[in-house]
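Structure in, sequence out. Go:
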């Protein structure tokens, strides 16, 4: 469920578009840099060029700044954002032609408005040579704006590729995790049927009660298939139902001691993990009046610790051997940490846990 949520958010990001404020900032920076010399001149840091065609004034400076800003904004907006919104499904050639015409129209209109504005503000008439100079200057601004568009496109493409790779990676993990989780149901059923087989021979009446309780437990196991992590409180509630089932067969020869504080019940771990370890302990160890099986559950150093005295059965029990391997792989996927196993006179398994 958690990985599915991550995938959902990643897919929402697969088409990130440049934000309006970013576009405005880029256009402002371009206009400011182009008018930097006039800005410095206006501030009196450098002297006014006496050979200039017209003097630098506040009106002239503001008009130029505004014109370059609007021009740059329109060019970037047309080539980066309007393209996808206005004609997302047309061919590349038609798209190129439309953009070419759009850029030429913006370029021509901007030059015309600029010349008219400069002549009005400075009360002059611009010569043909000056007009050529203005056209060349605006062409440079156009080229710079288009280069900025290409840089942004490359950044977006790189971001798209990274997101695509992350989605493929997450989907692969989710697929592997689902495969592992699908092993839980047959594993639980296989071991439960083994216990039932032994109970039928020794006590048919208890075997009937065992089947009734087993159906309730298996319903939870089927429901848990949709979950990745559960709270320790949920896991222990299921474990209690499971151990009640075990007590039908072993009575006081099996004991489980939960050494947890109230705050520990809000921590999370992989679903059916404690039950699996208790099940393994019952399956592989001797259980008798002389040697009852005692399982201890506690929290230590960021792990939930399940431990019991190691007394291997004299007769081997048929087993798939997938239980611990399954738990190990689920912990690696979901928790980013593996289980820890310690085997001496006791058998101890440490399960990684987290807050949510």
């Amino acid at each position: 469920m958690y990985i599915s949520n991550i995938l959902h958010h990643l897919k929402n990001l697969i088409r990130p578009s440049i934000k309006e404020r970013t576009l405005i900032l880029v256009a402002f920076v371009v206009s400011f840099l182009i008018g930097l010399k006039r800005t410095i001149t206006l501030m009196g840091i450098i002297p006014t060029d006496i050979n200039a065609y017209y003097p630098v004034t506040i009106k002239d400076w503001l008009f130029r700044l505004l014109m370059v800003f609007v021009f740059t904004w329109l060019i970037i907006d047309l080539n980066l954002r309007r393209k996808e919104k206005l004609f997302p499904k047309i061919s590349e050639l038609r798209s190129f032609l439309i953009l070419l015409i759009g850029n030429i129209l913006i370029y021509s209109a901007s030059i015309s408005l600029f010349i008219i504005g400069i002549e009005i503000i400075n009360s002059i008439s611009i010569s043909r040579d000056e007009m050529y100079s203005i056209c060349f200057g605006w062409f440079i601004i156009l080229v710079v704006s288009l280069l900025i568009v290409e840089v942004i496109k490359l950044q977006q493409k790189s971001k798209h590729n990274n997101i695509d790779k992350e989605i493929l990676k997450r989907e692969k993990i989710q697929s592997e995790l689902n495969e592992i989780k699908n092993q839980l149901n047959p594993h639980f059923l296989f071991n439960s049927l083994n216990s039932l087989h032994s109970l039928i021979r020794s006590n048919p009446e208890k075997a009937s009660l065992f089947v009734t309780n087993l159906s309730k437990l298996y319903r939870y196991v089927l429901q848990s298939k949709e979950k990745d992590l559960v709270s320790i409180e949920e896991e222990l509630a299921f474990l209690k139902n499971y151990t009640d089932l075990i007590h039908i067969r072993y009575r006081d020869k099996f004991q489980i001691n939960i050494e947890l504080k109230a705050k520990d019940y809000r921590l999370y771990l992989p679903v059916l993990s404690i039950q699996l370890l208790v099940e393994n302990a019952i399956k592989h160890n001797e259980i008798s009046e002389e040697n009852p099986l005692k399982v201890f559950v506690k929290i230590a150093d960021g792990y939930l610790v399940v431990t019991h005295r190691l007394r291997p059965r004299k007769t081997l029990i048929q087993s798939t051997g997938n239980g611990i391997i399954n738990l190990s792989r689920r912990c690696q996927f979901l928790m980013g940490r593996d289980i820890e196993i310690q085997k001496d006179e006791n058998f101890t398994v440490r399960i990684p846990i987290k807050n949510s």
